[in-house]
Design a protein that fits this description.
Blueprint: H1 4-7, H2 27-39, H3 43-55, H4 59-63, H5 67-70, E1 71-72, E2 75-76, E3 79-83, E4 90-94, H6 97-110, H7 131-141, H8 144-150
Antiparallel strand pairs: 1-2, 3-4
Helix pairs in contact: 3-6
Length: 158
């Protein structure tokens, strides 16, 4: 005798969908993005991208950095220590020369002071860049040729 549940065909919720953690960027892709950001003159995005790659911080920690966290006076530090929001543990990371150059250009362009957020929000009610803005900033602005190979589910709209 057949039960009603065995006769009904049920498809899994994730059939045909891309699920799980995305593969990390390859070194070749990172350099391609850096070159594109430099060629487009996008100083803020280049500094944000480079610092994110160097520090490997969570988005919430990255956007809440202040200028004083990476600068000592007029000099950019080669290393920085930050207390993570989620774990409340200190994390130390190295800031490479390319990232220091990008950060210096961004700080000068934006005329940031020591107490300012490193990546201030363009909206007046928020003091720093939001984590959602950070998360989608690069995906949204990637060139269509790169986006179709990296994120096919966006169909070139990345």
């Amino acid at each position: 005798m057949e039960t009603p549940s065995s006769s009904v065909h049920h498809e899994p919720w994730n059939k045909g969908k891309i699920v799980g953690q995305k593969a990390p960027f390859k070194l070749k892709e990172i350099w391609a993005l850096r070159v594109r950001l430099q060629m487009q003159g996008r100083v803020r995005e280049l500094a944000l991208f480079n610092l994110g790659i160097d520090s490997k911080l969570r988005g919430c920690d990255l956007v809440s950095l202040k200028v004083r966290d990476v600068c000592h006076g007029d000099q950019l530090a080669t290393r920085a220590i930050l207390m993570q929001h989620k774990t409340q543990r200190p994390v130390q990371f190295e800031i490479t020369a390319a990232t220091r150059d990008a950060l210096q250009a961004w700080i000068q362009l934006a005329a940031l002071k020591s107490d300012d957020f490193l990546f201030p929000s363009r909206l007046h009610e928020s003091p720093h860049l939001g984590t959602r803005q950070y998360a989608f900033r690069f995906v949204r602005h990637l060139p269509a040729s790169y986006a179709t190979t990296r994120c096919p589910w966006m169909k070139g709209r990345c």
